[in-house]
Amino acid sequence: MDNLLDIKNLKTEFMTYAGKVSALNNIDISIKYGEAVGIVGESGSGKSVTMLSIMKLLSENGKVVDGRIFFNGRYIENLSEKEMQSIRGNEIGMIFQDPMTSLNPVFTVGYQLVEAIRKHKKLPRKSAWEKAAELLKLVGIPDPERRIRQYPHEFSGGMRQRVMIAMALSCEPRLLIADEPTTALDVTVQAQIMELMKDLKDKVNTSIILITHDLGLVADICERVFVMYGGMIVENAGTNQIFEEPLHPYTKGLLKSIPRANLGKERLKPIEGQPPDMIDLPAGCPFLARCPHAMEICYLRKPPYIEISDGHGAACWLLYIKNGGV
Ligand code: SF4
Fold it and tell me: Would the CB of 298 count as within 6 Å of ligand 1?
């Protein structure tokens, strides 16, 4: 068994006052043991809903209506809430955008880390404190024996995010999900956190899902990228393939909007237009209102996903026609 996570044909919907939102439409994602993948897209594209579906943490009005999620040998839908709690605590660690929402300001960082460690491992308190200091050291916090007795507000934004990473690693998870982990940080600290994640990937051999709107971020640590748009996977490729030979017009647009050192006189071009209204998705391709190549069929039918080379494919009618489809 190669894959830690296999998502097949996942469909998730939300009932809202304004109508039904089809947040995920037939999503397929797979992640190997020890692999780092990026899920990239604008807000509302379905990245975070994918993760909430995996964790069975959808809000009350949300529901997985079709598809299967297989995690480390088990079908998620067959598991009870108690079993899911154990998976969330022990096998999946999460890092969010804003560490202050996850850290309790009234307890020291050490106390919170020790509580997290003791929840998952039956360690005596003294050993748990030693382990907590080790984790702080692992994530690059200097002078961990002193820092461990400090409160979250005594840490900078970047250092707090390091604490959150230590917290997520405390249960030695098989999968680490990082949801926009650096969005709230300035560019230099962002680079340091990404460097840390890259380093940890090699040291602790955990699989990583990096959820981000920034395609540039995945280049550093991810081996594979899933590009999402309008609740669909529009392209899936190895990271080099995405940068060297993007297939989908949306991915091409994303690449033109990333600042690069070698840009020269070429200007950054943001993708014009707005993401689709998820309550009123077009019958055809969700990207059609912004696509310079939209054709009649794009309005009528959802584009099929086709694989062009090993592990590289996209959902686009233009690609389908170019490759001999009708
Ligand atoms: Fe553009 Fe059509 Fe391809 Fe959608 S299916 S990305 S509208 S060419």
Answer: yes
CB atoms within 10 A of CB 113: 23
Q: Which atom of ligand 1 lies closest to the CA of 248?
A: 6
What's the mean pLDDT when you consider all of the chain?
Answer: 89
Ligand 1 pocket, residue 146 CB under 6 Å: no
Using the atom order of ligand 1, give the atom closest to the CA of residue 234: 6
Sorting pLDDT into bands at 50, 70 and 90, what band is 267? low
Q: How many residues does the chain have?
A: 326
Q: In what side-by-side order are the strands of the sheet with 175-179? A: 92-95, 175-179, 207-212, 36-40, 224-229, 232-238, 312-315, 305-309
Distance 295 CA to ligand 1 centre (A): 7
Residue 293 CB less than 6 A away from ligand 1: yes
Q: What is the DSSP code string of 139-158?
A: TT-SSHHHHTTS-GGGS-HH
Q: What's the alpha-carbon Rg for the chain, to the nearest Å?
A: 21
Domains and CATH numbers, the chain: 3-91+171-322 (3.40.50.300)
Which is nearest to 21 in space by CA: 44, 41, 39? 44
Atom 3 of ligand 1, residue of closest alpha carbon: 316
Q: Which of 291, 299, 302 to mutate to test the pocket of ligand 1 (most atoms within 8 A of CB)?
A: 291
Q: What is the distance of C-alpha 238 from the center of its chain? A: 16
Q: What is the pLDDT of residues 143-184, one digit of tens each?
A: 999 999 999 999 988 888 889 888 888 888 899 999 888 877
The C-alpha atoms of residue 306 and residue 321 are separated, in whole angstroms, by 11
User: How far is the centre of ligand 1, averaged over its atoms, from the C-alpha of 294 (Å)?
Assistant: 5
